[in-house]
């Protein structure tokens, strides 16, 4: 349903705070009971669907380069997707009470996760290319009138 390419380098070395991916990109805006809020990002409609939609999604992250703590690899809170959609305060509490797992990977490795798994990444202390192909897949049939963007 969506593919994103990330490339963290010395010039583009960013921090991503702890969060859950809770929105999907769709072709049009349509009011659906229990879906929202809606946003528009780069001309594409995004909406937070009901939890059952996120539970049917999976994210595949294909590593094109080695990823480790020195170049800002992904960190996750294992099993946090089982807690459902969390408020910012709930996310902060879960992170404080949990041990983060560092997702080091070699070029060619594949990481599979649920989008609403709590995750983050730090700035690289020794940034170099950390390219990831991030593929979001869903078997969910969207309501009539909506299509994946």
UniProtKB/TrEMBL annotation:
Signal peptide: none annotated. Its cofactor is Fe(2+). GO terms for molecular function: 2-oxoglutarate-dependent dioxygenase activity; iron ion binding. It holds the Pfam family PhyH. SUPFAM superfamilies: Clavaminate synthase-like (SSF51197). Transmembrane segments: none annotated. It comes from the Bacteria. InterPro entries: Phytyl_CoA_dOase-like. PANTHER family: ECTOINE DIOXYGENASE (PTHR20883:SF48), PHYTANOYL-COA DIOXYGENASE DOMAIN CONTAINING 1 (PTHR20883). This is Phytanoyl-CoA dioxygenase. It comes from Methylophaga aminisulfidivorans MP.
């Amino acid at each position: 349903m969506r593919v994103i390419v990330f490339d963290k380098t010395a010039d583009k070395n960013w921090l991503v705070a702890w969060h859950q991916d809770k929105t999907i990109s769709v072709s049009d805006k349509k009011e659906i009971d229990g879906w929202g809020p809606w946003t528009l990002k780069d001309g594409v409609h995004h909406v937070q669907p009901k939890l059952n939609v996120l539970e049917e999604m999976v994210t595949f992250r294909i590593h094109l380069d080695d990823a480790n703590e020195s170049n800002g690899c992904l960190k996750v809170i294992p099993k946090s997707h089982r807690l459902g959609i969390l408020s910012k305060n709930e996310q902060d509490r879960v992170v404080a009470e949990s041990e983060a797992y560092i997702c080091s990977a070699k070029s060619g490795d594949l990481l599979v996760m649920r989008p609403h798994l709590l995750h983050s990444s730090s700035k690289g202390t020794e940034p170099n290319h950390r390219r990831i192909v991030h593929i979001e897949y869903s078997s969910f049939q969207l309501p009539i009138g909506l299509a994946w963007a």
